UniProtKB/TrEMBL annotation:
It comes from Tessaracoccus bendigoensis DSM 12906. The keyword Transit peptide does not apply. This is Spore protein YkvP/CgeB glycosyl transferase-like domain-containing protein. Coiled coil: none annotated. GO terms for biological process: lipopolysaccharide biosynthetic process.
């Protein structure tokens, strides 16, 4: 099997041993465990091979020299972009991984590189209240242009997607990685001094100067301790601090040893001979959503990490981990070390188990799934010898995301979009130009777009029309020149039957392909209290019956006060053609008056705007409601099932045909009983989630894509 070619450029100087350099070295090694050849483009002229030695020995890693301007030790961003364009073209790369906001922005602006860019951006402010507008604009530009984005943790992915809509659905996890052979199990000596170690760069935020005091401070309270310090990079804007730090390393206090800079594997071997690895930071960094690579290396090598208590660290190690410090003072560190002396074996076991999830082999499995999923399946549907020119035309493409992604990934498809301004409004000259170019036109919605194209398509061109629901009773449906249409795609077998029953269109012309979803994107860890949150996506028009959601919430809260309801989507008055109808306004007025007259509903019903970040939103939802009187498909419960939430269906025509009857309930009381029976029963809820996720696989993008390709590539 031919290995894909991946190029990595981390904007990192590999002559300096620090966390960023360790990240790049680990990632390169991890990627060789996927079906990939890894091309590492160096930033700086090589002056030491401490980090390069291991990579150079790997048969699936190719090192590409830096080409800085004459007289400069390292490539600037603009020079790096030119070099990356050269290397990616030379090796035929299909993936380019970059790290850093400025670099990724410059790469995203390259037409040659943007289509293969997988951008890993960590250097932006959190929370949003302190994010500069310029940084926000840069993130949006990168996300718009890049093929994929990487974030380090679930929290950082959620944050990015919540502030950058363009990143939703294309952001994946790039966790820190530890090589498998760095996991070392050396026994802890019960007697002897407490052996502390620090490995990394020296900076005020890392408390490296204060660390030098720890053995003496511990001795004052009767705890014998030693400290080994590794790393030779000292940097800070404060020159006085730099001088003091260098002096402390060169003339260390008693019981402190400076080992200088070591090759990474030698540093890990040294770490394994210590009890505690110091990952002590200033409290200013406690808002970080990231996890340090060095922290994971400590854990893997058997030195239980001492670290600040943060949300990310608690998620990694558990709230009861004994080596958390609750403030960044030296006193707090000394007290924590003294108190945890008898719990080090437990602490190191906890930390090593947590770090296992970040091993190269575990990470490689995840990364390979990302790459494979982004690539076209050319086995069942081989590439055509001639490119297929495809136009997708419509006013609202929100249900076509997976279809468009699949078409964009095909090497034998040229894709253009005819974006209509509204249901009946478009630039006719643009549409004429696109039609003249197209081999195949897909009309998303059987609206006036389908009428326009069906009346103009040429005999040598093919036309596919996707019909959702409302079009079937529209005034224009009879104006579609059905004899010029090659296939009508409905979103469910239920609606396929309905179209066949209510039109005189040839039955063999009408197909059912469900709306697709991305299970890999949606399947994320739930937040702790998600099981108490009911989620309703979309409340317009009123036949979606948001009042039924209130009925269920009240029935649940009458027996368990932990439940709440989150409603996501636009309000009815945001749709002028809906709000002007008295028959729509009246039930909505009653709905909002019902909430306004109840203190309990006011406190436990939230309204949230429409957003693209469904994977993020569903992390805190345990139950997705489907109370509609009528739906052609209903994507929201399908997405909920994929996410690990459980769907709750009210009876309606077609629901069993699409979703089955496992989560269908005949009354609110029956539904509430089922929810309450599972909410605190982990085993029954887990089994139900497994059933729901298995059922959702038939809506997963690769499954749905294959059905589309059967039609699109038909002779």
């Amino acid at each position: 099997m031919t290995r894909r070619n991946i190029v990595i450029y981390g904007d990192v100087n590999l002559n300096i041993v620090d966390g960023s350099a360790a990240w790049l070295a680990s990632l390169a090694e991890t990627l060789t465990l996927t079906d990939s050849t890894v091309h590492v483009v160096l930033k700086a002229t090589v002056t030491t091979d401490r980090l390069l030695r291991r990579m150079a020995a790997n048969p699936h890693v190719v090192l590409h020299e830096a080409t800085p301007r004459e007289g400069q030790p390292a490539m600037t961003v603009d020079v790096a972009v030119d070099r990356l364009e050269e290397v990616t073209a030379q090796v035929g790369a299909t993936v380019l991984i970059t790290r850093g906001r400025d670099l990724s922005l410059a790469v995203a602006r390259s037409d040659a590189l943007a289509p293969i860019l997988w951008a890993y951006v960590t250097d932006f402010a959190f929370p949003f209240s302190i994010l500069p507008a310029a940084q926000h604009a840069q993130l949006r530009e990168i996300a718009t242009r890049a093929c994929r984005m990487f974030m380090q943790t679930e929290d950082s992915r959620s944050y990015l997607e919540s502030i950058v809509p363009e990143a939703a659905g294309k952001t994946l996890l790039m966790t820190p990685t530890v090589p498998d052979d760095f996991f070392i199990d050396e026994p802890i000596e019960a007697d002897g001094p407490l052996k502390l170690i620090y490995s990394g760069k020296h900076h005020p935020d890392w408390r490296t100067l204060e660390m030098l005091e720890l053995p003496a401070r511990l001795a004052e309270i009767g705890v014998e301790a030693t400290l080994t310090v590794l790393g030779d990079k000292v940097s800070a804007p404060d020159k006085v601090w730099v001088k003091a730090m260098r002096s402390g390393l060169e003339q260390p206090p008693e019981s402190v040893t400076w080992g200088g800079g070591l090759p990474r594997e030698d540093a890990v071997a040294e770490i394994s001979r210590h009890d505690v690895g110091l990952s002590w930071r200033t409290s200013r960094l406690d808002n970080s959503l990231e996890i340090s690579t060095k922290l994971l290396e400590y854990a893997a090598a058997g030195a239980a990490p001492l670290l600040n208590r943060t949300r990310a660290h608690e998620a990694l190690l558990g709230v009861d981990y004994p080596l958390f410090i609750d403030d960044d003072s030296t006193d707090a560190v000394v007290a924590t070390l003294a108190a945890a002396r008898g719990n080090l074996a437990e602490a190191r076991a906890t930390a090593r188990a947590a770090a296992r999830r970040y091993s190269s082999s575990a990470t490689a499995l995840r990364l390979e799934s990302y790459f494979a999923r982004s690539e076209p399946d050319l086995g069942a549907h081989p590439a055509r010898s001639q490119p297929l020119n495809v136009v997708v035309a419509g006013h609202d493409l929100k249900f076509a995301g997976e279809l468009l992604a699949m078409l964009q990934a095909r090497p034998d498809v040229e894709l253009r979009i005819d974006q209509w301004e509204a249901l009946s409004s478009h630039d006719e000259a643009d549409s004429e130009e696109l039609l003249a170019w197209a081999d195949l036109v897909i009309c998303e919605w059987a609206g006036p777009n389908a009428v326009w194209y069906s009346q103009r398509v040429a005999p040598h061109q093919r036309l596919l029309v996707r019909l959702h629901r409302f079009e079937l009773t529209s005034a224009w449906i009879g104006d579609i020149a059905i004899d010029k249409v090659d296939a009508v795609i409905t979103v469910s077998e239920y609606y396929q039957d309905m179209v066949r029953a209510n039109t005189d269109w040839p039955h063999e012309l009408i197909h059912a392909i469900p709306n697709g979803l991305d299970m890999q994107d949606l399947n994320r860890p739930k937040l702790e209290d998600a099981r108490f949150t009911l989620g309703l996506v979309g409340m317009v028009p009123f036949l979606k019956r948001p009042d039924r959601a209130l009925d269920l919430l009240e029935a649940l809260r009458a027996r368990d006060r932990r439940f709440r309801l989150a409603i996501r989507g636009r309000k009815p008055w945001e749709y002028p053609w809906i709000w002007r109808k008295p028959e729509e306004q009246e039930p909505y007025r009653r709905f909002f008056e019902r909430i306004g007259s109840s203190d309990d509903l006011l406190e436990n019903v939230t309204f949230e705007p429409f957003g693209a970040d469904m994977g993020n939103w569903l992390r805190r939802v345990g139950w997705v409601l489907s109370p509609s009187e009528h739906e052609s498909f209903h994507l929201a419960p399908a997405e909920g099932m994929a996410s690990g939430a459980l769907p709750l269906f009210w009876p309606r025509d077609g629901v069993v045909q699409i979703f089955g009857d496992r989560f269908l309930y005949g009354s609110v009381e029956e539904m509430a009983d089922a929810v309450l029976a599972m909410v605190d029963d982990q085993d029954s809820r887990r089994l139900a989630v497994e059933f729901a996720q298995a059922a959702a696989t038939r809506f997963d993008a690769p499954v749905v894509d294959a059905q589309w390709l059967d039609l699109l590539l038909a002779p």
